[in-house]
């Protein structure tokens, strides 16, 4: 469906995938469930027709907790096909917030286009009197139509703020200002009168999709008393790569250290991230399981990427190489 429009306005593809932004309270379950299509969402924002023309593609209607590599690939293909059309000025994706940062990062890595790609969601469902979906969709259209948005990569636009896919994380379970970019801050703002960008994302790279499926990569948490058994089980079950949600600078205990060495010895790349929200992992400590010993064992360090984002980069990197040096170079960019 195409929104009512003024023919001289920019044309944006609007891909709807579900999430809270597409949910209403079910009278039987008495809880939010998928209910709205992209066309329904568009109807909640009549003022959008003065900003851009939107071409709706109802790709999925699922909670973002159900997003997975096959759905990421399908979404990437839909977005890439839209971006290739010369008449399309950019892409808007509506999506649940739980995995929104993962989908944004996956698209940022795999799409090659200067046209803006703007992801939105909502913290409050469409039955709520203060539903935040319409404002976010309106601002996404404003960002999509902004000439300044070209070359900014994939963005998340919620609560009037614009964040870069690489940097942004969900930081609060309920607040509408949940998406933040840690030490680096927002890219810009969708102010009432205009869209204003303050910086550009500099650490971008492109990794093409090389097949119809992605290698299996698991995230293993480190915590006080971790045995390393979960890591061994993941390798036994067929994981092609492992991301460790380590502690602090990128440290683990002796048991996890032995499991990591064993996995690397079996040819399974291991990436070290951290459960700390901000800062880089660095091979600093020399005790068994300290970062320096993990580096010496052949582990890859995820820089400042969260475990969930490190997993996505590793999945894409493993399409073409298992070499630790080449994989490390991807994380260092």
Short characterization:
With 333 residues, the chain is an alpha/beta fold. It has helices at 38-43, 69-84, 100-110, 133-144, 229-236, 254-265, 291-296, 307-317, 324-332, and strands spanning 11-16, 23-26, 31-34, 53-58, 88-94, 117-120, 154-158, 161-164, 169-170, 179-180, 188-190, 195-197, 217-221, 241-246, 270-274, 300-301.
Structure in words:
The protein has 333 residues and is of the alpha/beta class. The protein folds into two domains: 11-197, Rossmann fold (3-Layer(aba) Sandwich), CATH 3.40.50; 217-332, Rossmann fold. The protein is 27% helix and 20% strand. It is built from nine helices and 16 strands. It has helices at 38-43, 69-84, 100-110, 133-144, 229-236, 254-265, 291-296, 307-317, 324-332, and strands at residues 11-16, 23-26, 31-34, 53-58, 88-94, 117-120, 154-158, 161-164, 169-170, 179-180, 188-190, 195-197, 217-221, 241-246, 270-274, 300-301. It has an eight-stranded mixed sheet. The chain has a four-stranded parallel sheet with strand order 13-14-15-16, sandwiched between helices. A two-stranded antiparallel sheet has the order 2-3. Helix 3 runs parallel beside helix 8 (307-317). The radius of gyration is 21 Å and the shape is elongated. The chain starts with 10 loop residues before the first strand and ends with a helix.
């Amino acid at each position: 469906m195409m929104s009512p429009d003024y023919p001289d306005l920019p044309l944006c593809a609007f891909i709807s995938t579900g999430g809270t932004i597409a949910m209403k309270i079910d009278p039987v379950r008495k809880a939010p469930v998928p209910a709205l299509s992209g066309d329904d969402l568009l109807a909640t924002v009549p003022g959008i027709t003065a900003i851009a023309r939107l071409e709706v593609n109802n790709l999925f209607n699922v909670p973002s907790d159900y997003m997975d590599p096959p759905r990421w690939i399908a979404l990437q293909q839909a977005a890439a096909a839209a971006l290739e059309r010369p008449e399309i000025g950019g892409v808007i994706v509506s999506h649940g917030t739980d995995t929104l940062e993962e989908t944004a990062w996956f698209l940022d890595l795999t799409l090659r286009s200067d046209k803006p790609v703007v992801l939105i969601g909502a913290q409050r469902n469409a039955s709520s009197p203060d539903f935040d979906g319409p404002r976010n969709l309106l601002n996404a259209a404003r960002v999509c139509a902004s000439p300044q948005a070209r070359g900014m990569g994939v963005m998340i636009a919620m609560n009037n703020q614009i964040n870069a896919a690489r940097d942004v994380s969900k930081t609060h379970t309920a607040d509408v200002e949940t998406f933040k970019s840690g030490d680096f801050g927002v890219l810009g703002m969708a102010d009432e009168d205009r869209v204003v960008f303050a910086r550009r994302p500099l650490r971008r790279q492109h990794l093409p999709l090389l097949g119809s499926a992605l290698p299996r990569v698991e995230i293993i948490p480190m915590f006080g008393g971790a045995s390393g058994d979960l890591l061994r089980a993941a390798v036994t079950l067929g994981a092609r790569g492992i991301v460790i949600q380590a502690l602090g600078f990128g440290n683990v205990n002796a048991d996890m250290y032995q499991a990591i060495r064993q996995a690397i010895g079996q040819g399974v790349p291991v990436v070290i991230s951290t459960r700390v929200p901000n800062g880089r992992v660095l091979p600093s400590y020399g005790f068994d399981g300290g970062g320096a010993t993990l580096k010496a064992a052949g582990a890859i360090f995820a820089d400042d990427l969260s475990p969930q984002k490190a997993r996505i980069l590793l999945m894409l990197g493993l399409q073409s190489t298992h070499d630790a040096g080449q994989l490390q170079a991807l994380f260092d960019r």
